[in-house]
Amino acid sequence: MRSAVHISSAIFALASSVAGLNILLTNDDSWASANIRATFDSLQQDGHNVLLVGPAVQQSGKGGTFVLPTSNIVAPGGEFDSVKVGASFFGQNVTNPNLFYFNGTPAATAGFAIDVVAPIHFNNESIDLVVSGPNEGQNNGPYLYTLSGTIGATYYSVERGIPAVAFSAGNSTHRSFTTNTGLPDDPANQAAKVTDPNAA
Ligand SMILES: *[C@@H]1O[C@H](CO)[C@@H](O)[C@H](O)[C@H]1NC(C)=O
Ligand SMILES: *[C@@H]1O[C@H](CO)[C@@H](O)[C@H](O)[C@H]1NC(C)=O
Ligand SMILES: *[C@@H]1O[C@H](CO)[C@@H](O)[C@H](O)[C@H]1NC(C)=O
Prior knowledge:
Blueprint: E1 22-26, H1 34-45, E2 49-55, E3 90-92, E4 99-102, H2 106-121, E5 129-136, H3 144-147, H4 149-159, E6 164-169, H5 187-195
Parallel strand pairs: 1-2, 1-5, 2-4, 5-6
Antiparallel strand pairs: 3-4
Helix pairs in contact: 1-5, 2-4
Protein name: Survival protein SurE-like phosphatase/nucleotidase domain-containing protein
InterPro entries: SurE, SurE-like_Pase/nucleotidase, SurE-like_sf
Organism: Ceriporiopsis subvermispora (strain B)
């Protein structure tokens, strides 16, 4: 099978031998993107304790900027209609308590997750690893260190003393998790599979 997935950013050094990590999963393309949800499923299937906290809306190109929300969710709502207009600036999926959105840039989302959500979610256990992405599209080249929100979330986390790794997938289609075909050749599932090769 020709793979549409191309991981350009990093090596997932811990995953091959360690199960049951407390993983904070974030990104820049929003909490509702197909890639992050497929990767959430993969990491969870692999036995990790995964907390997803992603931006409420697309935050591509924001690098490591730290912009906190100043209002509740404004029109047109969360990405792909995932959050209603007027909803709180952060929130939790009502049926899956591991899924959160936050209406900030990727670095600010990581900060909120590290300081507010994770201590409750992980019962004050430390976060072992921050995983960011897989980004929709490639993050190749040194300039992306300042441009990529996917990478911005990771260097913010590293500055906070938490190991972090960013992933990027060659397919740049911006799409909702609700469009995932569920088939192994869905580009989001391929990206998730490359991110965590141990997953079923
Ligand atoms: C990228 O993903 C979209 C949506 O799944 C798909 O239709 C398209 O064929 C993919 N592109 C490549 C080059 O694989
Ligand atoms: C919330 O989680 C449920 C169960 O996993 C899922 O069916 C639903 O689409 C999710 N909605 C959002 C906006 O995340
Ligand atoms: C986590 O630590 C805070 C601050 O020390 C404490 O107030 C809180 O009760 C702790 N929560 C749990 C679940 O242990």
